Amino acid sequence: MTHLISFFIFIFSFFTEAHPIEQSTVSRKNLEKKLIKEIRNVQKRRKIVSLSFSFFHDKTYTFNYATGYADLNRRIKATPDHIYTIASVTKSITAMTLLDLVNKNYLALEDSVHKIIEGFPPNVTILDLLNHTSGFLREKENENYLAGSSYRDVIEHLPVKFNLKIHRYANYNYAVIGALIEKILEKKFSEVANDYYYTQTGDSLYFSNHDNYKSNRLFVRNYVKKRRKRILHETVDFGLWEPAAFAQTTAAGLATFLRQHMTPHFIDYLEEHAVTIKTRKRNKNRIVKDCYALGFRLRYVNGSLKYIFHNGFLYGVLSTMYYFPEKDAGFVALANMSNYPNETLSLSGFYKNVERILNTEIRNTDSVDKVNYDFPAGYKFQEEFKSKR
Questions:
Q1: Which of 98, 87, 179 is nearest to 131 (CA)?
Q2: What CATH number is attached to the domain comprising 82?
Q3: Residue-wise over 161-171: b if at least 16 C-beta within 10 A, else e?
């Protein structure tokens, strides 16, 4: 009789323990169905040709999805393996490539740029470039900003008010970061960035190389609409501006990059170096503060960090990546438009739709800080952070 009771206890405990696993599987299927529905709605509503999407939760679950056409004229369907230009999201990769050199003691955030590039204003630091507080103003204020082929040429075309220490977003800051990296390592920026990106993701990073674009069918084709025709917008070598806006990769690769770096310690590091962009009241009970830190945007709601992200738009290319610290989840969405330049849209609001889905499918983490994450391969911030805590 005792053996029989033990047997039933074993059977009961077996099924009781198995049930949460089954429930988790069902929950993820619901999550994926809702995400697919939202992606298709966004594609249709915003007249997007193709959209490649990669979602992750904690360190184990990934969901990749693509819809639409990677080449509209040839009717080639998009897959998660297709390569998109990621526009200004490039800055996050450029920043991390530079921080890797900081970590290896090639330079410090407080160093003057003048220390490496002679003739540069001595009161501009490496941190100023990373946070857009150098004093360089937006290039759009001068239509000739693309006329230069080097940072020395371009500086003559840019309005400058040095040492303001106020965030003024300008691609030129990251163009100079690329020049710094090349000066320090005596290698092309594109090679250094790709090497770093590959160690973090196992995926490749491309930079607007015309020959690659012509030969590699995995590159998404972008078209410019002129009257009733769609003209292929072929990529060119943008050289100086590559570190700011012209990297190319897959959504899955970029999501892996984001996932690898969003550790509790690195998030602390971002917050320590953040500069405030603006603070605004949405209503009596909601205060929103936007910050910029080392190639990432941070958004606080009522004092709590809600989002770490970056958006991009360039020649009809749309890109966005978001990390939700309270969920330990994030996503990347890359897209292209057929109706550019007749319409200029962005994916900047897409995160709200994803967040609504997450709120119904994924509970908040009790404390992300309690999780013992491994740092990415080759990453050495760990000891520095531990000594501070």
A1: 98
A2: 3.40.710.10
A3: eeeeeebeebb
Residue 316 CA to its chain's centroid (Å)? 18
> Three-class SS of residue 234?
coil
Looking up tokens 């530079």 gives 98
Is residue 23 one of the residues assigned to a domain?
A: no
pLDDT, residue 213, reads 60
Q: Following DSSP, what letter does each residue of 301-321 receive, concatenated?
A: ETTEEEEEEEEEEETTEEEEE
Residues 339-375 have pLDDT tens digits of 655 566 677 778 999 999 999 888 765 433 333 333 3
Contact 310, 297 (CB under 8 A): yes
Q: Cα–Cα–Cα angle for 360, 291, 362, nearest 5°?
A: 15
Which structural domain, as residue segments, surrounds residue 216? 31-388
Considering the entire predicted model, what is its pTM? 0.83
Per the rule left: phi > 0, alpha: psi between -120 and 50, beta: everything else, 286 is beta
**Distance between CA atoms of 299 and 276, rounded to whole angstroms?**
10
In a domain, 5, yes or no: no
CB 341 within 8 A of CB 317: no
pLDDT in tens, 9-50: 433 333 333 333 333 444 688 999 999 999 999 888 887 889
Number of domains in the chain: 1
Evaluate whether 170 touches 151 at the Cβ level (below 8 Å).
no
Question: What's the count of helices (H) and strands (E) in the chain, helices before strands?
Answer: 12, 14
Coil, strand or helix: which one is 338? Answer: coil
Helices 251-261 + 90-103 axis angle, to 10: 40
SS3 label, residue 44: helix
